[in-house]
Automatic annotation (TrEMBL):
Protein name stated in the entry: Rab-GAP TBC domain-containing protein
Pfam family, one: RabGAP-TBC
Gene3D superfamilies cross-referenced by the UniProt entry: Ypt/Rab-GAP domain of gyp1p, domain 3 (1.10.472.80)
InterPro entries: Rab-GAP-TBC_dom, Rab-GAP_TBC_sf
Species: Daphnia galeata
Length: 329
């Protein structure tokens, strides 16, 4: 693999083909390849302007030595968090998303390259975190409800069991997603997981939490209480990254196009030279009362599946129609 990477100009498509066979990017080439496949613009002038912008970090977004980051990396990591908040100040209002928890897992890999660290994190937020900020200050309920529908399609028995105990994607997937999945794989395999996420289109990311749930499905179905299942889903026992990715690719391949999230997302767009794009529109619409009503309708629709006589395909069809309507508002 190293020979191929060193002797051909890599593209996201060519690297995806290689990684689909569950190879990994050699550690010594990873940073260079991430820089190339993400088309990082090296907007040093704009970054330095953001860096000079004074932003008071909330206490819960200031990383400390006890967070397991070396002294030399700690200052850079906090600086990147501050620069991201200077560019996207509304993230501070997102009480269900701590930017520091999302940025921190990449510190060991990127803290020696501050500008690249910032641009990689912003590229991920702009592309792979689409719709995460739809309902600030609350989690992205509409997006997470789509994960319920995809799990229902791929593993109806597991979905029914979890739903009967009041467990949905928002109860486990959001925690994993908002910490960049560092809690579900071994730290040594964290970057392998992100190798695969970054060479695929943004919608692939959402098969990672579904795969993590499905891999534990046989065991979860044997558990009979909400608390015991949540204890397993939130345990610190890491999953094997290769098994997780294999399951994610299989679920992606077997999920019909009409259920795929790529229909509600833009494809990968690299950052452009000279200026950084905003993370979301300036006139961000926060979570309003009418949205709560919409989500209640979607919630009631998914509850139908708890009834053994409910038609899964009909519920999926209605859920998709409601999802499209909500995104189009």
């Amino acid at each position: 693999m190293a020979y191929v990477l060193l002797n051909k100009a890599p593209t996201r498509e060519s690297l995806r083909t290689i990684l689909h066979s569950f190879e990994i990017i050699p550690e010594q080439h990873r940073l260079k390849l991430w820089t190339v496949i993400l088309h990082l613009p090296n907007n040093k002038t704009q970054y330095m302007s953001l860096r000079k912008t004074k932003v008071k970090l909330p206490n819960n977004m200031i990383l400390q030595e006890e967070d397991g980051i070396g002294k030399s990396s700690l200052k850079i990591c906090n600086q990147v968090i501050q620069s991201l908040l200077a560019h996207c100040p509304s993230i501070i209002e997102f009480r269900h998303f701590n930017l520091a928890d999302f940025v921190k897992p990449f510190a060991g890999f990127l803290a020696s390259h501050e500008l690249l660290y910032f641009e990689i994190m912003l590229t991920i937020l702009v592309n792979w975190c689409q719709h995460w900020f739809d309902h600030i200050p609350l989690p992205p309920y509409t997006l997470l409800s789509m994960l319920d529908i995809i799990l229902l399609k791929n593993h109806p028995d597991l979905y029914r069991h979890l739903a009967n105990l009041g467990i949905r994607a928002i109860d486990y997937a959001w925690r994993w997603m908002s910490t960049a999945f560092c809690t579900i794989v071994d730290p040594q395999e964290f970057l392998i997981l992100w190798d695969h996420i970054l060479v695929n289109e943004p919608s692939f990311l959402y098969f990672i939490p579904l795969a993590a749930c499905k891999l534990q499905g046989r065991y979860l179905i044997e558990l009979s209480t909400h608390d015991k299942i949540m204890e397993v889903l939130h345990s610190a026992t890491p999953l094997d990254a290769h098994s997780l990715l294999k399951e994610a690719y299989q679920m992606n391949a077997t999920t019909p196009n009409e259920l795929q999230l790529f229909s509600q997302m833009h494809p990968f767009h690299p950052l452009v030279p000279v200026y950084y794009p905003t993370l979301y529109p300036t006139d961000l619409i926060t979570f309003q009362t009418e949205n709560k009503s919409d989500l209640s309708n979607l919630g009631r629709l998914l509850v139908k599946v708890q009834q053994t006589e409910a038609e899964v395909e009909e519920v999926i069809k209605q859920g998709m129609a409601l999802r499209r309507w909500m995104l189009g508002k």
